[in-house]
Amino acid sequence: MANYTTGVSGSGRIKPSTLFLFGMIIFFNLNRVTAQPQSYVLTSVNDFSNGATLQGCVVDSAAAAVILEGDSTQNIALGKPAQFIRPDEVLEASQITDGSAADLNHHAYYTSRNWTDTYAQVDLESQRNLFKAVIRYRADVSAIFAPTDYELSVSLDGANWTVVASGEMVAYINGDLTIRFDPIQAQHIRFLGLAQPSANPKTLGLGELEVYSLGPVPVGRFISGIQDLGNPGNFGRFTWQLNLPGGTSASIQFRSDSTIINETLTTNGVWDSGEAFSDFGANGIDNDTNGDGIKQTNEAWDTGEQDGLYTIGEPFVDNGFPLSRTWFPPGGLTAKDTSGGDLMADGTVSLDTTNNIILWADTTGIGANGLPPIILRYTAWSGWSAPSGTDNQFLPIPEPRRYFQFALTMRTTNTATPQLDELSISYDPRLIASQAVASLDLSAAPVLKDTTVNYTLEFTFGANDYGVDTILVFTPSAVHSLDLSSDGTDINNQVTTRIESDRFYVIFNNTFTSTGNLNIQFNVVFSEPSNTLPAVLMSSASVDNPQRVDESSSGWQITVNEIPQASLNLVTIRPNPITPNNDGVCDVAYIAFYVAKLSAPRPVKIQIYDLTGRTIATVLDGNYSATYFGGATGPTWDGTDDSGKRVMPGVYLCQVRVQTDSGDNVFTRPIVVAY
Fold first, then answer.
1. Contact 129, 172 (CB under 8 A)
2. Number of domains in the chain
3. What values do phi and psi take at 505, rounded to 5?
4. Which site among 38, 440, 515, 559 is 20 to 30 Å from 599 CA-CA?
5. Is residue 542 part of a domain?
6. What is the CATH number of the domain that holds 464?
């Protein structure tokens, strides 16, 4: 399994009073002992190989590293899908790619006197630079029934084929036939045996079809097995030891276990009549055929000793689970009979790597008869994060979570290969909040109109949690009229708020640790067809590792349902005034506005003037389609003129101009520069 190492991010008390994170300075009000994050490290052959899916990648045992598959001495057809294809049927032929020429595959009988449409075919599952094939035969196959000639073809897509070699099968009786040809990019290869006219049907006694390539595959993907932190953790940053020779590249993605679904199998610790156990609640069938609450011999749950008792190692039979799989609980189960006792130890886990499902039983709590209810819990996965080509980035996946996976995509344009030697994930086993789930009171809003939103955060805090010092919510535009309450109690006097053009912050005077609902009401303008409002939590005890808020099942996405009436809408300039002295506060003005009702790209220009009408600076000048200008990447003015010289303090004019078919739409507003 992966190695765990402990690292210390600092000791004593927090020295800085601010944190620059997510592109913004966060202010904290407390000095507290810093966190001591841990690292989850994958570095050995077993770490990388355990449960992994390899698609054009291999784990090099000598280097203990993940590399692209392939070298000129490696049979790249080994283990790949193979078929014998005849005019009337397609037959599976895994014997010809299993590495053993001793297997005789006689599937390709053909009763005509030629073999032009009967062949063996292998899918190499990725494009390779092929240059050689080796045909290995069974020595006990008589040449009388063998084809006399061959034809070898390759294809990129399995539909369009190119003949790369043909000739006599002179080596047939001696055992092997080596076929060399000019290097060619291909993913599929097929071998045809051609017979001279004969009254006898011909048999292709093919033991093995080997294929060789020059250099590695151009693209490979490595998907790790399920990685287990042991308990839910707050993911931090990942780092890697990745060697990238010239002409190669690599990117990585992550995902974590997502929505948890609970199915109560029984409320009193005993399988009773009418309780669903074999279908996870799909239809309520319990296979207790005589209705006495005891599973009888040959009833579906008692598949092991068939003694009427559920015991260690006997599977739950899954008749209705979404993936139609039988779940075999892991070893170490507690024997269960109708007199009581646990079904399995709390927290026992089964990892289904084939279907990426995590299952476990929860026997906590006390039900009827003094026995715990038995709850089967299972979870799917979040979506894969966007690919990242650089490390030292935060894992952009739901948290806190116990399980995660990573997918590494490697590419090369030559004979070199990327090489992943080590991957390290920092995480904090101590959480900011045990659970934080966000939900909205609306899913649609009018476009470009001030809209009231109720943003609810459902919190659960454990005794060991850090608690929340700052909440950061990302928004499609600057908000106003912030109002906060906790379980209906006004808490506006307990917080400080900070509003940016595309986000706002709630900074608590004292660390927030109240389990329950925190409601944030605000007004905001929506312009894009689809808008999301994600959030993160921050703690002064864990300044380098914020915690992402979970999205509720109803989601935090809002769509717009109207069309704006004007071409230039809702121009804002924030902050105003600006103080461009490079102290990190109010150094630049963010200019935000909406351009709508344009059938084609049109000129859009932002200019700064002094009070005499002289142009000081051109902030934006280009042709644009209807869109929103704003947010962290929107147009800004930093108080300098076109030559880069800082302007004198005073009042200036900011003008936004959009050229349309019916004329110019112009907006002008004063902007103040102060030092």
1. no
2. 6
3. -125, 140
4. 559
5. yes
6. 2.60.40.740
